[in-house]
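User: structure tokens for this one?
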Amino acid sequence: MLLNMAKVLFVVRKTKSNTGKHFLYCRITAQRITREFSTEQEITHPEKWNQQNQFYEVESREGDFINLLCDKLKYDIKIICVSNPEFTPDHVIQRFKQPVKANISLQTIVSEYIQHERKEGRWKDATMRHREDYLNNLLLFAKQQVYANDVDERWAERFIYFLKTKKENPCLHDTRASRHIEYYRKALNWAVGEKKITDHCLHNYSAKRDKRKPLIYLTEPEKQVWYNGDFTDIGFLQKAQKCFTVQMNIGVSYMDLWAEYEVQNVKDDNNNTIGKILLGKRGKNGQVFFVPYNEIAEEILKEYNYKLPYLDNSDYNKAIKIIAKILGIQKRITTHTARRTFIMSRKNEGWDMYTVKEMAGHKSSRTTEVYYTEATPDRLINEIKNRKLLNR
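Assistant:
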């Protein structure tokens, strides 16, 4: 079997045309037969190709992709060789050079995938508008039809560059730009499942993410300052103060602040009420959430007959910034700061992350941990205090 094992060698060749481009070729030797085929991957820095070590010495996405491609091809060829004793290089060329369906464009696939998602009804209108933006940006970038088999990581890099440099509404954030490509990959995966295409080249796309911004939330002393602020003479600020207070204590987002909630009593084994739970459903993703219903939120909701006064998002944000300035809170807060404050408070109180995720109404605890919490000594301090009380 080892005598029949194929030898695989990669070489970089320059095209015969005047373009001066270089491409990676795969040379296979088996059964005393040698064949060579192009991987169709362009090498932009041919001088960085280490022929002896068979390694592309470029520290970039292109370098990672080319080296990963070489490893994958070697592995696939060995699998074919082991499974077929009569293996010849022609078998590989026949396997890897099968024509891909190219009669459907990426624009068409993305458009049909958006229609498919609309029929499923899984996403809210705001999310679907983002999907439409992804399609519109694709149409702006590619005036002509781009076929699915032409979409690879190098195409993705060119598209992201276009997003960042376009004149109207440039996309300045890596995360936002990468989400376009991630959505196109989902659409292509769907197209493969629907047998519209046989395969695509975005499987190994590695998305870029912006550096995480410092988490802004109110500490326990700042929360007390907020609670104690007196704005009875300024009705609008008082409404904003109380709405923000409710958010900090039940953790809802701005859009869910005026939703309908259900209150359930929590009883012990003797059927005695020991607390209350507030249940609701998020408007963004339909996820059910439930939080301990504390006295601070309950008192304010009772005051407004369980229906908080509506505040426009822009006016609400302006009002809470004014309140923070008056109270001496030196942080640039928004309505979402209240939600982060709630989650950080629960974490520091010792709740496990899965329970906090359920309170927040997130689908994944990773979302809760990565975007709504940060490492602080507060939880450790609380643990020390609680253990000392228990050991007395």
